Amino acid sequence: MSADASFVASLPPPPCADPWLNVPAAVELSRLETEEEITKAALTEATAASFSAAAEAVLSAKGAGSPPTAASLVASELNLSGEIKLSDVLRGCLLSLDLSENSLEDADVLAGDGWCWLRELKLSSNKLKRWPSSLKCMPALISLDLSFNARLSLNGANLRPLSGLMKLELAGLGLTNLTGADGDDDDEDDDEREPDPKAPIPSTPLSALVSLIELNISENDIETLVALAPLRALPSLQRLDASGNPVADNGRYKRSVQSLVPRLKQLDGDNLSTLTGASKHAGAVKDADSGTSAVFESNRDTSTCSCLEGNPCVEPLCCKNWKQRYFVAHEARKRKGMFEPKGLA
């Protein structure tokens, strides 16, 4: 037996079964948005210290059972601050957690490393200064909202573990670019220049997000078309909202974005039609589409199970344990020392 196979075989069972086992990721995202096949409960009052007990009580009252199955918890506008702790059972079964519009500011706001099955996390309108370290402990996460945390910036180290993310909301962070650099270091001529869709893809923290379908970067401070060039690093992107940025007022904005992201279906809430009547630009879009596809396909590694590197596989073909891919990835991260100390639990 190979070392990888031995590792998979030696894993202990997760704290509870995945409530959405074998549900395709795209269907999971739809369920989260429509709140189907999930028991939703809301806290009306709680403190960080009483959070776990209050959460279990309200979910039990909703008939989620013990342990709760396919549960969604809303705990917004409660003025929560400090470290949020949940029991192992609740952390293992919660699929959606909304902590928006509180006063959370610590990077270790979510304690523990057992967030095996969490699909959605909302932390918008808090006081976060750094990305939550517990994101590394959420291998099944597909939707993340960090909007309106004014002190946050793009960080590749925080995004690398989130290769399965399909929806990311970063509105109102004061971003001036998508490279993670401080401030706006564009050349003076960039105000007039359009990004070249065939140029090498610039380095960006977004490069890790190969599964991302929807990105919200609205209400930021992005001024130039060139600053949008890193969008080319997102091979699966279909919906983009960059409204409220100065660049959105540029007359060439829509055309440039379409050339950078040929697969895009929706921009700033508007559905995009085929570029009929603009044949020469349509040809450029087709070339860019082919180029992006080639880059994406050339970077795919179908020879190994990515779960063993800490990222859940997106295809069953070479996965060592497709049914438990999220848990295997979770344990692999722990083995590689990618988790916070156990004492945080």
Automatic annotation (TrEMBL):
Keywords carried by this UniProt record: Leucine-rich repeat, Repeat
Pfam families xref list: LRR_8
PROSITE patterns, A to Z: LRR
UniProt region (Disordered), positions on chain: 179-204
Leader sequence segment: none
Record-linked InterPro entries: Leu-rich_rpt, LRR_dom_sf
Cell compartments where the protein resides: Cytoplasm, Cytoskeleton, Cilium axoneme
UniProt superkingdom: Eukaryota
GO cellular component: axoneme
UniProt feature, compositional bias: Acidic residues: 182-194
Principal cellular location given in the protein's record: cytoplasm
SUPFAM superfamilies the record matches: L domain-like
Protein name: Uncharacterized protein
